[in-house]
Amino acid sequence: MSKFIVSPKEGVPFVSVQAMAKMIHDYGVEQCITDLVDALEQDYLRWDQFEKSSRFASHSKDGVIELMPVSDGEMFACKYVNGHPINTTRNLQTVAAMGILSDVENGYPILLTEMCILTALRTAATSAMLAKHCAPKGVTKLALIGNGAQSEFQALGMKAIMGISEVRLYDIDPAASQKTADNLADSGLNIIVCRTLEEAVLSAEIITTCTADKTNATILRDDIITKGVYINAIGGDCPGKTELDSNILMRADHVIVEFEPQTRIEGEIQNLSSDFPVTEFHRILKGEVQARKSADDLVVFDGVGFASEDFTALVFLRDLIKKQGGYEILDLIPQQADPKNLYSVVKGHSKNHSLVTNEAESVAMS
Amino acid sequence: MSKFIVSPKEGVPFVSVQAMAKMIHDYGVEQCITDLVDALEQDYLRWDQFEKSSRFASHSKDGVIELMPVSDGEMFACKYVNGHPINTTRNLQTVAAMGILSDVENGYPILLTEMCILTALRTAATSAMLAKHCAPKGVTKLALIGNGAQSEFQALGMKAIMGISEVRLYDIDPAASQKTADNLADSGLNIIVCRTLEEAVLSAEIITTCTADKTNATILRDDIITKGVYINAIGGDCPGKTELDSNILMRADHVIVEFEPQTRIEGEIQNLSSDFPVTEFHRILKGEVQARKSADDLVVFDGVGFASEDFTALVFLRDLIKKQGGYEILDLIPQQADPKNLYSVVKGHSKNHSLVTNEAESVAMS
Lengths: 366, 366
Fold this sequence. Notes:
Chains A, B: InterPro entries: NAD(P)-bd_dom_sf, ODC_Mu_crystall, ODC_N. 2 copies of one chain form a homodimer. The first copy, chain A, is an alpha/beta fold.
């Protein structure tokens, strides 16, 4: 499939929140996550082809702003994403993200998109993919600790890929659990809102922690974690932001990570020695390492989110809008006749022709 | 001045190429560069307040894709920029850039913009500011070696800030020189198109090299550089891409850089030992170090472009559009009532209300 949505001379395709929401609604969240899992597996199988680096992080008092670049040699992807747990008290989202996909051959952007919704989908798909290869088979009960923006996507991903039928919700904010329960009322899942964390994890075979506080919290205590459980720990994702009692990691039979250098900085294992043994997921997918040896194994996915997952999601979106549209064209790159004559764009200031921009400006400038 | 153009709940202001071209045309290129020099000086004076890092670079066969993040603790800026000299043979620009400015307090983007034109302006302003503080006083003749996309902006910047009256053009592509001469015909500058580099540098007091080839070229030979000349070398800006005979640097009385760690990797000094003495410009601006001690001094600015200059340009643009508009509103961040209820945006897929997006989608989707 050609990497181009439109020619680089036509402008840069942009997917707005509204367009993304409509597209995903029509496509179906579970179908979208299912297809993303396939795409993620294909890209994790070619792990070695990606130019990888730990994400850039600019930390401030209440949050972090991150850049997540990655390239497979043909396309370059970068996500701009923040993490400000305090934002919900300001009636703003914890995470605001945007993504760019570009052509390595000429450096031109080929896609610009909202990435709040897309990130929730790719994170749910990554969690489901890890569970598919690292959790016990035939599980039916999921405990969902932290019922914020990610929770419904996480629940539907585990339903679609793992066949989860019961979801046990817990959040220190009961309204968040109720919100998640209401959103999933018609999902076909048996939703149980729990008043305590102990009640939520009771009998759960998969425990997902997706809390947001930027502290070294102990969301899961060691004493409530039984043998054979699979822990999908995705809320701890930057220095000083973790969720698990370190004893859980110490006694785990296997701790699985995405890109080890980044997880050493950002993951649950930041609280352990730098030689604490972990396995990068791609090795499990390739069959080089077994995720679990017995039904009693305690396996933990220390997920922080890696740039290649956003690359996969951006290419997935690229393919989707190539088929069905739903994008705008942004007038982002000058298109003058002589590429060396950038000055003519200012001197003439009417050389660029972008239908959407003309439309838009007539609105913004009126 | 408030850092917000519009409230974070209203969407993200976007400046298109067409809007930028009109704004700069109406504002005047020389006035714009003059104001940018003032703004750059203010920010270079508070150099220590910026969180600085060398830019991220992803190199490929024909070019490079870079991310340039920087923060002053209140706002975060990042420029996406590529460098593909081969692009002109594809009728594409060597550089395609976009910029994002965001609010450190909540991580939300507050401005998204084209940055090809803005980068040409900030680079011309940076060159003019360095010349203002490091070149001899009373100079009138500029040699401009390399007459591509940056050349007119460079000439007008040196005219506005240094009082340059004569510009001597040379490029291996005569059509590029003619293009620059035509664009500057009504600038009030005396433009001389030269057939050889020697002819161009003859009698020039400032020599600007802004060539694009990604090679360790020797655009300027040591034997044609006379005493007292100021060299503004801005074309060499990544590993394997330099313009000067190393002997020029060796015999220079002073080599000035922006952010030393980045210039060691990307600048002309990449060809010299890692302890070759250089001075960061902010020290000269603060009066800690003298740029030149005698009229005979050979001073070289080894410019590569630093993220704080883009920060300054983005804040300048932010202030400009706050006064006069000229931006669109992008539907980039979900705006649902409950920030924890991201899922509702997909379930409802009609929660976002962006006038421009509605306009745009009615076009893109029709």
